[in-house]
## 1
Amino acid sequence: MKGGSFPEASVFFSALSADFTTAVLQIFFPIYGFFSVIPIDKSVKYIIIYKRSKTRGCFFMVSLSDIAKEVKFNVSVVSRALSENPDKHAVVKAETRELIQRTAMRMGYQPNRQASFNGRKRCATIYCFLPENADRLTADLMYGIVRAAGEENFPLKFYRGGSESDLSGFLLRMIDGIDHSGVITYPPFALTGSCAEMLRKYHEKRNTILLLNTPTNTRKGRVDAEFRAIPQVNIDEAYGGMLAAVHLLKQGCREFRYSYLEPMPYKSRIDGFRMALKRAGFTAEELRTPEDYRELANSTVRTGIYADRDVHAFNMLIHLARVGITPGDRVLLVGNDDKQQSKYSLPRLSTVHQPTMEEGMLAVRKLIRMIFGGKEKTELVRPYLVVRESSGGGPDDEIIYGFPETTESKDGKLPQELI
């Protein structure tokens, strides 16, 4: 064991601006502990982030020999105990395997992933193609991906794009490439047959691609039939709408409105909201025109409003103010996404939090199991509600309802419990 010798790079970021580079380092330095920035040219930099040892203040790589000395077993036994694909003819006792795995974790062992992939004539690196959005949702998603990949010592490389042609070009280069082991990506919003065909071809040829947020990133707002064979991790948007409805009911609302922006990729959010109200014996009307806002101002009934995304809720705050309404008393407002601005609007916005960090971690773990030959199903990650002033919370409140958990997907249909 040699102090100061660096393990294989855990993360690669490419084509980063200076500001984004700084943000990445601020986010990931506490996790990985060491980084080096290598300038390639004026426009491209690679940031190589190394894993910090859990047991020492320096940077080093724990070897199988180090673990073998600690547990007093042969190196071959340690190797079999830590293998993802152990030899069926060389079984390690369960108690021995548990001891070795526990010791490896305590010592901060990270397997040399590239060495294990040399026999496959392929790199261990996972490629991630993400949208160009610069917001909390994307940052949390990247954080979750990096955290889970770092735990398993898989290198990452991030690509960012904003169009179907970007993704098609990316997949065209990747489909026969030996420089990666798998791909995590979004389908583009304006999806056409050619890009869908590329996604299907990659899946059929390599079976190591995982899609994110497919219903809300295709035109129909649901999982298209051609994607159902490809494993996915999606946010349970209908459940988020249900959480908003249940909260407004508990706050004593007896009339309900909803509003959305066109186009409508988040239809399932509104569906979940209306379905939960229907189960309680209520209906919801759309809030859209100036006349709708004036009618709301003249009402005396406690009314709950649900906006399909925070950016729309912020616009609604302006329209409500024009008719003399400040949400939080007779009129309550809930958004969806938990954007950064929701904490600082006036009043502070209650909203459905999109757990993209948990989504990113789950996506990496599923993809790694696929890389090693496992079969994975599509899963939904449930969001949770953050209650602030706009729906009756106090000035400093951030009350959490619900927790991020996963359920098996029903091919884009609403969860059975909401029907």
## 2
Amino acid sequence: MIIRNSSGFMVSFQYLFSLLLLLNISCERSSTHFLDNELSDIMGMQYPMVVNSSPKGRFVLLKKRCSNSFKLFVLNTNSSKYEEIDNSRFSQLSLTWHPNEKEIFFQKLNPEIKKYELFKIDIATNKKKKLDLPPSKNAIPPLKWSTQGERLAYLADNNLYVVDYESLNIELIIPNINDYSVFEWQSASVLYYVENPINPLIKRINVTTKQESTFNLPNINEVKGFSINGTKIIFSGRKQPDQYFQGYELNMKDGDVTKLVCSEYNISNVGYFKMDDSSYYYNRNENGILKLTCSDSRINVFFKNLSASYQHIEIDNDLGRCIFLKVGSFSYPNGILKINLENLMIEKKFFPSKEDQLSLTKPEFVEIPNNYSKLKAPGYFWKSNTKKDVKKTIIYVHGGPYLQSTPMWKDRHKILTEYGFNVLVLNYHGSSGYSKTYSETNDIWVQTLDIIGTIKWLKKSYDINENDIILMGSSYGGRIVLNTANYMENLAGIVLISGVVDLYDISNDTSYLEEIKIYGFYGDLDSLSLNAELFFNKLTPSNSEHFVLFNDEGHQFHMTSTWLFIYKYLIEKY
């Protein structure tokens, strides 16, 4: 086992002597140092990345992932200068502006309790304060302020908390709320929420009077998101489990539900523009590309033309006369555009990263047949951008399973293709973003067939042999790739990134893995690391040393030093 601490020093209890030799071989040390610098340069050029714009558009929040910390910066949209406001050991998550534009609230991991605590930071003084409020088990649900910032609503441990801004006291606790539930403020005291997306009743509560109302959604099976405009609620929902989400509008006066949008793909979110009350919606097509559509034809044509340059367009902030769009592409990291809705002109661009040096080619969109299912598994294939010495092909299998990989720019794809790897990212059965039938077909055997089908597709399409293929599984994806190895004889390797290892894998025969190079990367704050260590200790001596444990990392790796180590490890080992 190798333990890597926060300073980057690596300790091998079983092979300490070999490590000392390695550190004293000057030529190898020199080449290693050169690779460290190259990788560090590539990762560093994408920062600082844009997070979001402030409520009145005066500032843009930026974030930089450093070697062993995370820095926040505030950019003044008038001067385009930015200043550091925070430097934290653990990543600042759910970053949310207060409507006064003076404070930013966020969640941060407390490693001792393994939960996420709430903080606020004053951007003028850089003073940070931990709030005496219940921590959450994850930082996925958003923090949401009422219209003028009088109250905060957030989810923690299946409770929806309403907190007074001035006193920071809890005013209301709404119990039994699903982690994936949605909630929105209409005013300083009126909050709308859905207890459970698959039991779609939209509820309204007045925080002051505690008066409640419930709005039924006839024939709606599931709700994904909603937005309020006076007496109307526009929402993303579907009537049947196997249908895509569509756009609907609820009239709260008479309870009528009208279908506003009929799309051949999932509608992920909906809303209204402040300027003219026109509606907009997002849908992510089968290629995972987010498309923004507006009911105002004039604005919609502008979005369509804009999508030629930016494939991902998302409304970050609506100021009425102008909006801020968060945009991304296949080729470069995200940025923010300020758009004047009256003349439909781009007023300003905010791209702090060195995009000209981070270019990545558009992936090939693929569909993998599955012998069990009629539905094909979608994916994206990036070819190595080196003209010679293509090392291996990595099939990346995300976690979840209810998650979705997209074809947008990522440092993982950029670095691996830069150093000679082909990369195929697969959205196996059980992934989100597609029909409910697809997302609920999450049987491990069907998912294994997706990976086997991908290996066959690579052979048929590019003559890539099994012994040149590495399976990389993140979280739940680790379970899939280990199961796939049962049916493959000549895989080049398996890489587990916080990969799930079942008790079955630990207690049963693992001889089928003896000829495969297996590497596992885990955080010491992740409960999954215990099973993973038992699993690696059971493997052959050569593989048991391939278990790497990172100090102060959880299930999701955040630190640049962690990812630099992983990428360097893969480049050198394969």
## 3
Amino acid sequence: MKIKNYSAYIFSILLLLTSSCNQDDVNNPTLSDTDLTVYFWGEGDNITGIAWEGYDVLIGETLDLSLQVSPSEDTTVQWVDDETGEVLSNDLNYTYAPTEEESKRVNFIATRPSGYEKTVVFNFRGNLDGYTSRINEWQSILIPQGTQTGKFTVEFDMIPSKDIMDGVVGILDGIATTYSDNSCIVRLNPSGKIDAYDDTGYAADNELEYHAGLTYHVKMDVDAVTMTYDIYANKQGGDVVLIGENYKFRRKITHQDYWSMVAGNFNLDDPGTHRVLNMEITTLTQNQAPVFLPVDNVVLAEGAVLDVEIEAVDPLGGNITMEANNLPQFANFVDNGFGSGVITFDPYTNCGGCDLGIYDITIVATNGVESSDLTFTIEIVDPNAAFDVSADAADATIWSGGSVDATWTQLFGGHVATGVGGDDQVVSVMPFALPEIPEGKRVKSAVLKVNVINNNSWVPVEFDVYAIAPRSTSEVLSTDYFAGDYDTDATAAGIQKGFIKNGDALGEFVMDDPSGLTLATFINDQYENGASAGEFMFLRIGANRNDMPLWAHLQFDSSESAATAPILTVTLEDE
């Protein structure tokens, strides 16, 4: 009786299990032919995109691919050469083994009994070595030596397929999708020469032409901390040419992880590609501390307000915090996060010059591992304080016959017997750039100073100062010449009569105060009439007579004389 009961129990369990299996079959519907899918063996991702992007395989090496299909029962497969139609394989496995440089397309076709097909297109490229660029399709290759954060060298060979093409090789911090992603770029320029990117555009310090089928070796010495690089290139067996020195990164980033390449077709009817091979990177140093973008020293007038942007970059892309140390009372720093901050300078007005002086500014950036300092100075100046404007290097001596000489290291007035204009009367003309005048200010005084080194004459003569209206360039013109009675030149304004007289002692001559006010009025009138900072006004020193057949020789230092060059001292005042 016990045996029978036990057997009945086992039978019930088996019946229950059978019923459960049948129920599972009901809940898992059979896949239809249109559900046909192709996968890599052992992986679940769909492979269509990967297959189309393709594979680069070196000649003499092999690539083995293993696929799976679902549903697999009764599904037949073929690997078919797209160009010839030849069936290369009838199973899920295929080996690509190039024997020559080529591009080959192979279609993997899976077919169901109903005739429904699923096709996956594989692109294969057989290369001698390295990579072949693609038209308007970026390729990015991870730097095998790891992230570069300090100094390192980049070397590679490139072979253009055309004499005129547009191909680049870059170094950057991630996957390239456009040119501006790259920090360092070397280009096969559509002009037929090799150039590189410097800060805001392509440039080349020296020319190197390229030609189809020839190999060109490129070396870049890169400094990720300063975000600069030097570029050298040479044709195989040829002399090394310096393409660029101390070029600035395009993308300002302090860690580099990838190579990139692409070929363009802009304005090219027959674009070419280039092969890039023998790619090597040698790490020289590594940096872990944050890197600041440089900030220039600042000069700010008391009462003005200035915002200075501060930016630091972490070599490994980490988070950065910043703080300012020992700021002056008129400064405030705000850390905006992500390595960005702003320091605002707002020196007080009407406090008796309480903020005047030079201040050291220090900003500290920390990434949790290391810190870096940025130091610069700000000088707070009296907005009405005098400042000097130097004569431009285009200052010149003019002969009455129209000859102009801007090359002498001295300027002349009176009558000379030598020079490009021969034995003739002369005047000197000095260009001065109009200064930037802050809003609400005007010129109070403008005083000329020159250093006389020769003053001899056989006839009585005085040398007067005139001002000539501004022009866009500093070039002295023959029409700037005039000699004669004071303030009788209709094309210029008389500033000081008898600035220098025959027989005066040698040395420094400074315009008198009334004349400084007269020149200030002239300058203010020029601004009111539309002149702007950066244009050039001209001061002329010439004789008060035009009948000097005999020696009358005034000679003073020109702009080339450095410390003793002509100077215009300008003082401002409130309008």
